[in-house]
C-alpha cells in the first residue's frame, strides 16, 4: 500500500522539474512513510520521440521488506512501474509467469515485480488476471505510452489530467499531489458543486475541478500525446442473475472464507476492525478460522454517547472468538481533526463516518500495519434499511394515494433524530408515492433539487452530465432484469461504494499509513452476491445469506440486533462544541458559502438544526467540509 504520482511530457513547454516531483511526493508522504522513490528519465531536449518522464513513489512496506522492492521499479526491458495496493493472487501469477517467461531473472518476492512481468507477458490485458486492490502506472518506452489501471471495485484511487493540447499528462493517488503540477487547471466545476450537494461526494470520472478526472472502477488505458484512451476491462455492471438454490449459503461461506484467506498475505502484523456488527464479525470469524498458531488482533472504538457506542458488542464477539482485543474510547477533537480530513480528501467530501474511520485507523496503526474490515457487506448482502424500505414501498404502492392523503397526520410523528423510528417511518411514507427510481434516490440524496436551487445564489448552474439522470437511467436498466431491491444494490455498487464508502476508507486509513483490506470487495465474491435474489438477501431479516452461512461461528444475537452504523454524534456537536466553528466558517466574510449560497437559506438550515426543529446534521457537515476544503486549497 503506497502513494504514487507522475508526469509525462512530450513537449519542452511542459518540462518536468525535480522540485515538482519532490512536492508531489511530499503531499502523499503519509501514504508511504517507509521509503521514497523519485525517477526522472532525462533532462535533455524534450521531443515527441524523446519524452520526459518523472515517477514518484511513497512506500508502505507490507510484502518483501527488502529495499530492492522499492519503487519506481524497472524490468530488464526498461519499463518502469509505480504501484499502489496489493495483488492477492501474485504467488499463483508468479508461478504462471515463470513458465511463460523462463529466461526472466527475478530480483524480489513482491507483487510489484509480478505485475510488471505480467504486463510484459500479456500487455494491457494483464489487468484481467489480477485479484486485488490496486492503482498503477507503467511507463513503456517501447510504445511511448503510459499505461494506467485501477481495480474492478475502485478501492485504490487514481486521479489524472492532461494538458490542453495533450502534450503532457499527470497522475497521482491524491488530488493534493496533482495540484503541484503548474499546468494543471484547478478551476472549480459548477456542475460538480451541484453533484456534491446532492450526494455528499462527486462520482467518478468527475472531480471538483473542471479538467481533472478520476479513474472509474475497472478502468485501464494508455495515455499518450495523441489520445487519452481509457476503457472498462470489467463487466461488474452487467452481472447475469442466476439461482443458487439451496447452495447459496454454502457458496457464500466458501467464498467469504476464500477471500479472507487470500487477503491474509503479509510480511507485517495484521489485525481486524471489529464493531460487533454482522460484517466485521464475519470477517473476524473468518480470520480466526484461517490463522493458525497465533491470536487474531481485533480493534474497536467507542464514544460517550451510547447511541453511537458498540464497544460492548465488539467485546462480546471478541470473547466468543478468542481474539486479542483492543478497545479505545475516543473523545474527538473535531476542531483540529476536520480540517485535516478535508485536506486529505482533496475535494469536498461529506460523509461524516470518515471521522470515526480516522480515529479507528489512528489507534489501530499503533499496533499493526494492516487491518481487514467488513466494509461492503451491506451493499452486497442487503444490510441497509433503505433496501427493506424499497421492498415495503413496492408492496404498498397501490395504497400510495391514501398514504399521501394522510400526510398531515404522519408528519406529526415526534422526533427529529435520524436514527429514531419515527424519522425512518416518515421517510418511508413520504417515498411510497414516488416513481421507483425517484423513490430510491430520495434515500440517497443529501439535498434534493429544490433545496439546491434555494441554496445556490446562481440556481441555474447545471451538471454537465447529470449524475442524477445517470443514476435514474441505471436504476431503470437494472430494475428491468430484477426488482427494486436488486436495482438499488446494483446502483449502490456502481455509485455509492466507489464514490463514497471506499474513498472514505482509503483516505482516512492511509492518512495514518494503515493498509485496510476489504474481503467483501473481492470481485469474485461481488459477482456471486450480485446474482442472489431479493428473497435470498432479505427474507427473515437483512443479510440472510451471511446469517445462514455463519450461524455456527457467531452468537445468534449478532444477526438479530439492530444495526447501528459507523457514525459520530455530529448533530449534537453542531448544537454544542462545534456550534461556533460551524457559524464562523459558513458566515465568515469571504467564505465559499458567502459567494455561492443564499444567506437566508443557509441561516434557516443552521437555525432549524440548532433549535432542534429539524435534523440537518449531514447537510451541515457537508457544507462545513466544503468550506474547509476551500479554505485549505485556497491557502496552498
Tags for this entry?
Rossmann fold; single chain; Glutamine Phosphoribosylpyrophosphate, subunit 1, domain 1; six-stranded antiparallel sheet; 29 helices; 14% strand; alpha+beta; 43% helix; globular; 3 domains; 636 residues
Describe the SSE topology.
Elements: E1 2-9, H1 18-27, E2 35-40, E3 52-59, E4 73-74, E5 80-87, H2 90-100, H3 111-122, E6 132-140, E7 145-150, E8 159-162, E9 168-172, H4 175-178, H5 190-199, E10 213-214, E11 219-223, E12 228-232, H6 248-262, E13 270-273, H7 278-290, E14 297-302, H8 311-321, E15 324-329, H9 334-345, H10 354-364, E16 370-372, H11 377-381, H12 385-395, H13 400-405, H14 407-410, H15 421-431, H16 436-444, H17 449-455, H18 467-480, H19 484-494, H20 496-510, E17 515-517, H21 523-529, H22 534-538, H23 544-549, H24 556-560, H25 570-575, H26 579-586, H27 592-596, H28 599-610, H29 617-634
Parallel strand pairs: 13-14, 13-16, 14-15, 16-17
Antiparallel strand pairs: 1-3, 1-9, 2-3, 4-5, 5-6, 6-7, 7-11, 8-9, 8-10, 11-12
Biggest sheet features:
6 strands, antiparallel
Distance between the termini: 27 Å
Overall tally of domains: 3
Enter the CATH topology name of the largest domain: Glutamine Phosphoribosylpyrophosphate, subunit 1, domain 1
- Quaternary structure: single chain
**Approximately how much beta-strand content do the residues carry?**
5-15%
Identify the CATH class of the largest domain: Alpha Beta
Instruction: Please give the share of residues in helix.
Output: 40-55%
Total E-strand runs: 17
For the biggest β-sheet, the strand order reads 2-3-1-9-8-10
Compute the average pLDDT. Answer: 89
Q: Round the Cα radius of gyration to an integer and report it.
A: 24 Å
CATH architectural grouping of the largest domain = 4-Layer Sandwich
List low-pLDDT spans: none
The global form is: globular
The CATH homologous superfamily name of the largest domain equals: Aminohydrolase, N-terminal nucleophile (Ntn) domain
Structural class of the helix and strand makeup?
alpha+beta
Number of helices: 29
Amino acid at each position: 500500500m503506497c502513494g504514487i504520482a507522475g508526469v509525462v511530457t512530450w513537449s519542452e513547454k511542459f518540462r518536468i522539474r525535480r522540485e515538482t516531483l519532490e512536492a508531489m511526493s511530499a503531499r502523499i508522504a503519509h501514504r508511504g512513510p517507509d521509503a521514497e522513490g523519485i525517477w526522472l528519465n532525462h533532462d535533455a531536449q524534450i521531443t515527441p520521440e524523446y519524452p520526459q518522464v518523472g515517477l514518484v513513489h511513497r512506500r508502505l512496506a507490507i510484502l518483501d521488506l527488502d529495499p530492492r522492492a522499492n519503487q519506481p521499479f524497472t524490468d530488464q526491458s526498461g519499463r518502469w512501474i509505480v504501484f499502489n495496493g496489493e495483488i492477492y493472487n501474485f504467488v499463483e501469477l508468479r508461478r504462471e509467469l515463470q513458465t511463460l517467461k523462463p529466461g526472466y531473472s527475478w530480483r524480489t518476492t513482491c507483487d510489484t515485480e509480478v505485475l510488471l512481468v505480467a504486463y510484459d507477458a500479456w500487455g494491457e490485458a494483464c489487468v484481467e488476471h489480477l485479484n486485488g486492490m490496486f492503482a498503477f502506472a507503467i511507463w513503456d518506452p517501447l510504445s511511448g505510452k503510459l499505461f494506467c489501471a485501477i481495480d474492478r471495485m475502485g478501492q485504490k484511487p487514481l486521479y489524472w489530467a492532461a494538458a490542453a493540447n495533450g502534450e503532457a499528462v499527470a497522475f497521482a493517488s491524491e488530488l493534493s499531489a496533482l495540484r503541484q503540477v503548474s499546468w494543471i487547471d484547478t478551476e472549480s466545476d459548477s456542475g460538480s458543486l451541484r453533484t456534491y450537494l446532492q450526494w455528499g461526494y462527486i462520482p467518478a470520472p468527475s472531480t471538483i475541478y473542471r479538467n481533472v478526472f478520476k479513474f472509474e472502477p475497472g478502468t485501464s488505458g494508455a495515455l499518450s500525446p495523441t489520445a487519452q484512451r481509457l476503457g472498462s476491462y470489467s463487466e461488474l455492471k452487467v452481472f447475469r442473475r442466476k439461482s443458487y438454490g439451496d447452495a447459496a449459503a454454502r457458496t457464500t461461506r466458501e467464498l467469504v472464507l476464500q477471500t479472507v484467506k487470500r487477503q491474509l498475505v503479509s510480511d507485517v502484523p495484521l489485525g481486524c476492525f471489529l464493531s460487533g456488527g454482522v460484517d466485521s464479525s464475519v470477517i473476524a470469524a473468518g480470520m480466526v478460522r484461517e490463522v493458525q498458531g497465533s491470536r487474531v488482533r481485533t480493534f474497536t472504538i467507542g464514544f460517550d454517547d451510547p447511541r453511537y457506542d458498540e464497544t460492548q458488542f465488539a467485546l462480546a464477539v471478541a470473547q466468543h472468538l478468542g481474539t486479542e482485543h483492543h478497545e479505545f474510547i475516543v473523545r474527538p477533537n473535531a476542531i483540529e481533526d476536520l480540517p485535516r480530513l478535508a485536506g486529505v480528501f482533496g475535494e469536498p467530501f461529506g460523509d461524516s463516518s470518515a471521522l470515526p474511520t480516522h480515529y479507528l485507523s489512528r489507534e489501530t496503526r499503533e499496533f499493526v500495519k494492516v487491518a481487514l474490515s467488513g466494509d461492503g457487506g451491506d451493499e452486497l448482502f442487503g444490510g441497509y434499511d433503505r433496501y427493506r424500505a424499497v421492498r415495503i414501498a413496492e408492496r404498498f404502492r397501490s395504497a400510495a394515494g391514501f398514504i399521501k392523503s394522510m400526510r398531515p397526520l404522519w408528519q406529526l410523528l415526534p422526533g427529529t433524530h435520524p436514527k429514531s423510528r419515527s424519522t425512518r417511518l416518515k421517510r418511508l411514507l413520504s417515498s411510497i408515492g414516488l416513481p421507483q427510481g425517484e423513490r430510491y434516490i430520495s434515500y440517497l440524496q443529501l439535498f434534493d433539487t429544490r433545496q439546491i436551487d434555494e441554496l445556490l445564489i446562481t440556481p441555474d448552474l447545471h451538471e454537465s452530465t447529470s449524475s442524477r439522470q445517470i443514476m435514474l437511467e441505471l436504476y431503470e436498466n437494472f430494475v428491468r432484469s430484477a426488482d427494486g431491491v436488486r436495482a438499488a444494490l446494483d446502483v449502490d455498487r456502481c455509485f455509492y461504494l466507489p464514490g463514497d464508502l471506499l474513498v472514505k476508507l482509503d483516505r482516512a486509513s492511509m492518512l495514518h499509513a494503515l493498509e485496510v483490506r476489504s474481503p467483501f470487495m473481492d470481485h469474485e465474491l461481488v459477482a456471486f452476491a450480485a446474482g442472489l435474489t431479493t428473497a435470498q438477501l432479505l427474507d427473515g431479516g437483512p443479510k440472510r445469506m451471511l446469517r445462514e452461512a455463519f450461524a455456527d461461528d457467531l452468537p445468534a444475537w449478532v444477526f438479530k440486533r439492530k444495526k447501528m452504523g459507523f457514525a459520530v454524534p455530529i448533530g449534537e456537536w453542531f448544537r454544542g462544541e462545534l456550534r461556533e466553528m460551524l457559524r464562523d466558517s459558513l458566515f465568515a466574510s469571504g467564505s465559499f458559502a458567502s459567494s455561492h449560497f443564499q444567506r437566508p437559506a443557509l441561516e434557516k438550515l443552521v437555525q432549524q438544526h440548532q433549535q432542534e426543529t429539524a435534523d440537518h446534521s449531514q447537510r451541515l457537515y457537508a457544507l462545513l467540509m466544503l468550506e474547509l476544503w476551500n479554505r485549505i486549497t485556497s491557502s496552498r
